[in-house]
Amino acid sequence: MREFKRTDRVADQLQKELAVLIQREVKDPRLGMITVSGAAVSRDLGYADIYVTLLGEQEPERIKENLQVLKRASGFLRSQIAKRIKLRHVPELRFHYDESVVRGQHLSSLIDEAVSTDRARQSDDEDDTDAQDEETR
């Protein structure tokens, strides 16, 4: 069994530390409720792509504004990470909006809608079959 690569371990640690730092240390009032949903680090540990979601915020302009706030705070966040994680070089942070949560909710609602439609159609078919059985008796 292959163990985790170093980049995976660094990405996991970055995700955990950034989640705490963004909630507790970044004091920008424009910043909404941000969740760090993932992190990916380049092989040379030069860059880290950080994926975030916003709770209750789906408007493109609010998403863009929150990403700008995080981009401006990236230097501060890197310095705080350097104090918490022992690395020779802390990766440059690049923030991205993670649409997978919103897409998942949308797909889930479509599935629920299809299931309820199917159940309604099935119960209508059963009612029609019961009515035909009564007529033939």
How would you characterize this protein structure?
This protein is α+β, with helices and mostly antiparallel strands and 137 residues long. A hairpin with a 5-residue loop joins strand 1 (34-41) and strand 2. A three-stranded mixed beta sheet has the order 1-2-3, with helices on one face. It has helices spanning 6-24, 60-72, 74-84, 100-136; strands at 34-41, 47-54, 92-97. 58% of the residues lie in helices and 16% in strands. Helix 1 (6-24) crosses helix 3.
Strand order of the largest sheet: 1-2-3
What amount of the residues lies in strands?
15-25%
Q: If helices are DSSP runs of H or I spanning 4 or more residues, what is the number of helices?
A: 4
Characterize the main sheet. Answer: 3 strands, mixed
Shape: elongated
Helix and strand element order:
HEEHHEH
Taking the alpha carbons of the first and last residues, their distance comes to 67 Å
Mean pLDDT: 86
Structural class: alpha+beta
Residue windows where pLDDT falls under 50 for at least 5 positions: none
- How much helix is in the residues? 55-70%
Q: From the alpha carbons, calculate the radius of gyration and give it in angstroms.
A: 24 Å
Number of separate strands: 3
SSE diagram, text form:
Blueprint: H1 6-24, E1 34-41, E2 47-54, H2 60-72, H3 74-84, E3 92-97, H4 100-136
Parallel strand pairs: 2-3
Antiparallel strand pairs: 1-2
Helix pairs in contact: 1-3
Condensed summary:
By secondary structure, this protein is of the alpha+beta class. It has four helices and three strands.
